[in-house]
Design brief:
This protein has one helix at residues 7-18; strands at residues 28-29, 32-39, 44-51, 56-58, 61-70, 79-87, 95-103, 117-125. It is mainly β. Strands 1, 4, 5, 6 and 7 form a 5-stranded antiparallel sheet that branches. The chain has a 3-stranded antiparallel sheet with strand order 3-2-8, with no helix packed on it.
Amino acid sequence: MTAPLGPLRSFALALAVAVPSWASAETISEPVALLQGLDKITARVSKFDAPVGNPVRFGTLSIRVRDCEKNPPEETPESAAFIEIDELRPGEARVRLFSGWMFASSPALSALEHPVYDVNLLDCRKASGSAEAPAGKCEGKTAR
């Protein structure tokens, strides 16, 4: 018969399972988050870029991405962004609806709860028009 897990040990086990694998890996910081918004009233789905540090609007929401990180190409694909979402209604004070990390692979893990809008992270990426690093190029080496 095995002894039951202590509360601290079971918490540590649950935490190890819940924390995504990217948390311990080296990530790449990207300047733009690709977000998807759903207006539940009109059933309109919109994809839009949110540059890190600059607020963008979606309906009555003001969305500010504070950080956007993704795994390097050789790792399991994952993007995560720290996002703050406020509701701005005319004549009313700003109301903070969400502040935390969103994960592209697990949108339900940390989601905005709002009766009209859904917002999900799709990816972290380079700004449009930025130069891509050449793939597979190695200085001074030739193929044999």
